Amino acid sequence: MRLSTLFTKTLKEAPKDELSVNARLLMQAGFIDKLTAGVYTFLPLGLRVLKKIENIIREEMNKVGGQEILMPALTPKSIWETTGRWAAFDALFRLAGTDNKEYALGATHEEVVVPLAQKYVFSYKDLPLYIYQIQDKFRNEKRAKSGILRGREFIMKDLYSFHTDEADLDEYYKAMQKVYFKIFERCGLLDKTYLTFASGGSFSKYSHEFQTITPAGEDEIYICESCQIAVNKEIVGDLENKCPNCGNKNLKADKAIEVGNIFKLITKFSDPFGFSYVDEGGNKKPVIMGCFGLGLSRVLGTVAEVRHDDRGLVWPKEIAPFTVHLVTINSPDIEANNKIKLASEKIYRELQTGGIEVLFDDREGETSTGEKFADADLIGCPLRLVVSERTLEQDSVEVKNREEENKELVKISRVTHNI
Amino acid sequence: MRLSTLFTKTLKEAPKDELSVNARLLMQAGFIDKLTAGVYTFLPLGLRVLKKIENIIREEMNKVGGQEILMPALTPKSIWETTGRWAAFDALFRLAGTDNKEYALGATHEEVVVPLAQKYVFSYKDLPLYIYQIQDKFRNEKRAKSGILRGREFIMKDLYSFHTDEADLDEYYKAMQKVYFKIFERCGLLDKTYLTFASGGSFSKYSHEFQTITPAGEDEIYICESCQIAVNKEIVGDLENKCPNCGNKNLKADKAIEVGNIFKLITKFSDPFGFSYVDEGGNKKPVIMGCFGLGLSRVLGTVAEVRHDDRGLVWPKEIAPFTVHLVTINSPDIEANNKIKLASEKIYRELQTGGIEVLFDDREGETSTGEKFADADLIGCPLRLVVSERTLEQDSVEVKNREEENKELVKISRVTHNI
Predict the structure, then answer these.
(1) Are the C-beta atoms of B378 and B312 separated by less than 8 Å?
(2) pLDDT tens digit sequence for A141-169
(3) Which of B93, B99, B129 sits opposite A95 (nearest CB)?
(4) Mapping DSSP to helix (H, G, I), strand (E, B) and coil, where does residue A41 land?
(5) Are A74 and B50 a contacting pair at CB < 8 A?
(6) Architecture of domain A322-418 in CATH?
(7) What is the CATH class of A21-309?
(8) From the candidates A11, A39, A150, which should be mutated to test the interface with B, based on the most B CB atoms within 10 A?
């Protein structure tokens, strides 16, 4: 994509009315725009990152047998009454229709997916079953001050698993922990993300969160460095400040943000809906459930929080809006400038033909080289390529990794192969 | 995909509480599920079709310079007050937050996109600009009885164009008409879809709808068969029952559903937001706007309405959930059955390797051949392939087009090439 055609522009300064680092950076670099507190628009650059996260999650969910559906956000009061959450769920947005009915905006979808699965699951032969969606969620938050880490509207993957018994759920639950770490690895969050024991509610002892260390986190976790797991502050007292795995008492406290959360629901939602199946012996049994949440917009915001420096964003390759940021340095000499432009266009075409995603800063006129470099750092693509009179003297482009300071000249003929 | 693993099942009979043909068929075949009146879940088969329509629209929008973003559904009252639509827009869902603010669920996004574009457009150099999204919309409909043709929640592509003057808008408006017909062609609706003159409101004489002929349509249009255009009933009187193009008085009335709608907004939304640009002479001028809507879920429902027979759905190739429905006919003889299974598995793998999307009815046991054929017809993939003892005697599979009655035997070695 040519930067000259991209309608968004970077801002000289971060917006002053925004407190969170993620939203300040993402707004300044032109990835998101704030409509109102806790509600954001994804601009072209941000949407590219979001789609990449979405594709990674979809790939990994499909690998473990997930079947993708799309449930609505507008949900009738009756299903929430069945589980008692119409009254009990504080963060539910409630609204009235001109049809004299009341609705809630889906903050989570157990109340929708259970009656749905119930239409198709009758026997043990129909289990296990894994259904997921990637969809817009709404939460009526009192305060929204963490940018896209906690929005009133946000995008989430929610998978619901259905099993014949708890042993089968346990196995899937463990497999999904690995899948989650695979996703966080691909999104560049692996080294700061801990499997964290959290409260389980009345149906199971613990739930598990995936917590990423960042000063912007709203949670506090206690890390066992030998086991590489953590405990959420809310239950660390119950565990006598010990690692639930090895009993280690030297837990290290840190601030973290919950990027994923998995629950053993057991029969919490099967019971109120009377969701049962017939086992091999002909006996009616309740369906056992798990649920596996992962916030896409929150992952995006978390990457912005943990991967930036004072010049801007630093995207991991697999979710970067573009792999290459190609910068043309114009020359005041018309002939030299034409040569630079021709060479840049050729490199742009060749990279694209080679399947490499390129953001091409082809701006001329008032934009200085310093501004171009500052924008490249702010937007944060993994590789910056520079074409100038000086690099062309050696039939080369200058290549710089966003995470390193050194630059190297690479022959134009080799550039597509070397990236 | 293997039918044995797909969690949805076809229903023996269409749901009795559903009036519309599209929802009855799509529910019976397992494409959608009804949560409540006007609110549906897209099941795996339905989501596949929806994603294909989405990709077609995205491709065509990108070709005409559209830049994709994603705006939120939750929108603050203030922006709707700026245009006067908080009070005037009947179908707006209004709700309150615990933050003591009022919100509307986006039924359309002029109020969001104008202040957004305003942040980036200052001069004639920033125009024209085309921004679009593919996103969930909400309308507080009094009645919802047309299945996914008119939902309370639905998926829409909305593109907003910004121009320096009306001549530039006119040019783009004409180009977009062609693009829309290209989209309807790819979705299999071209031959029944008419560009239809409709009321324009206070800012332009006409708007234009794309109306597809179907008895399920809620609109009545008057078709000029020589010009292949139509007039919506709401303005046919103002036009003295004549074709606005050639003056033909023999217009043919028919029922139709609006699958797309394009408007010249001119300054209807630029004015209230004070959205202006500076022209080449340094003069401040209002930005001229167009808007271009297209309902994805409505296109899907319309295809179901106009492309079905008494056996089920008949998908056009480009948006079919799968190109091939592969049916194995089991044999009571164990040895023969093993041979059939092996051959079917091989064909399934080869078709997939060849990039052909296959729904593989690998069900054994209680499912009869008649049930398998009935499901293939109901689901409506373009090609049905049958592997049986009889076809294998000739090293062949039987190929049948969903739209034709004749069947032919194709050598297994040629099947991937011949599809």
Answers:
(1) yes
(2) 988 889 999 999 999 999 999 999 999 99
(3) B93
(4) strand
(5) no
(6) 3-Layer(aba) Sandwich (3.40)
(7) alpha beta
(8) A39
